[in-house]
Design a protein that fits this description.
The chain is built from 9 helices and 8 strands. The protein is α+β, with helices and mostly antiparallel strands. A hairpin with a 6-residue loop joins strand 3 and strand 4. It comes from Steinernema carpocapsae.
Length: 265
């Protein structure tokens, strides 16, 4: 379409994002992979809803404290009614346990996943500047963090959401560190049962896990979430004065990816 179209031409367009939310090999929507993980790790609907409320509550607490201001680039748009300022994520929706309990299961009867405990498919953008030591010194840059190691792994696509667990283990092994050495861990919250399964599998304590909420609250702009998580972690390490953080995400099709940061400040 770069050079226009011929008169009378009929072009068909397909939303490949939606198509990508169903695994073509496993013949399963992503939500069903979370249901399978939930059953495997004996996660209840109450636990899944409670985790989602935790994500929303922690996000609100952090947002009210201004924690996200250092990592959000404010955008102002013109409108007939005056300027519209975008400086806060729009997706978060606080819910009560009673409200969550009323939401119907989406992927299977009496299932775990519902509209309240799954990440929202949102528009979003994130960017990072990654440089080598020599470039940082030459340009007199003051890095926020150092990338210590990263790993990607393959897993059974029918439980793709567990991918962060082996990816985190692999990155710890690569860096010769233990889980107890890590101060902050953020796993992308594709679905509450999925994130809970990773937390249970690794034994991550609540006080280190998704400490300012996650994708269930903020939303999951596919392709941008990894950069968002990375940017948030390096800012949060600096704010708390801690040394190590790991960001991780599952990947549809049966993968997991993890990255380890060290605070250089």
């Amino acid at each position: 379409m770069r050079f226009g179209s011929t008169l009378g031409a009929n072009y068909e367009f397909e939303d490949t994002l939606w198509k990508g939310l169903t695994d073509s090999h496993a013949k399963m929507p992503m939500g069903m992979t979370a249901e399978k993980l939930g059953a495997q790790f004996k996660i209840t609907r109450e636990e899944a809803d409670k985790f989602a409320i935790r994500s929303q509550t922690l996000w609100k607490k952090a947002n009210d404290a201004g924690i996200f201001k250092t990592e959000i680039a404010t955008i102002t748009l013109k409108s007939k009614k005056g300027p519209i300022v975008f400086d806060t994520d729009e997706h978060p929706r606080l819910s009560t346990p009673e409200q969550m309990a009323k939401l119907p299961s989406v992927f299977q009867k009496n299932g775990l996943v519902n509209a309240g405990n799954a990440s929202g498919i949102c528009d979003g953008a994130a960017s990072l500047v990654l440089v080598g030591d020599e470039a940082a010194k030459a340009e007199n840059l003051n890095p926020l963090a150092r990338v210590v190691a990263w790993e990607s792994v393959g897993v059974d696509p029918t439980i793709m959401g567990i991918g962060p667990a082996p990816a985190i283990r692999a990155v710890l092994k690569k860096a010769n560190l233990k889980l107890s050495d890590i101060d902050l861990i953020e796993v992308n919250e594709a679905f509450a049962p999925q994130a809970l399964a990773v937390q249970k599998d690794l034994g991550i304590p609540d006080e280190k896990f998704n400490v300012n909420g996650g994708a269930i609250a903020i939303g999951h702009p596919l392709g941008a979430s990894g950069a968002r998580i990375s940017g948030h972690l390096v800012h949060e390490m600096k704010r708390r004065g801690v040394k190590y953080a790991i960001g991780s995400a599952c990947i549809g099709g049966g993968q997991g990816i993890a990255i380890l940061f060290e605070n250089v400040n």
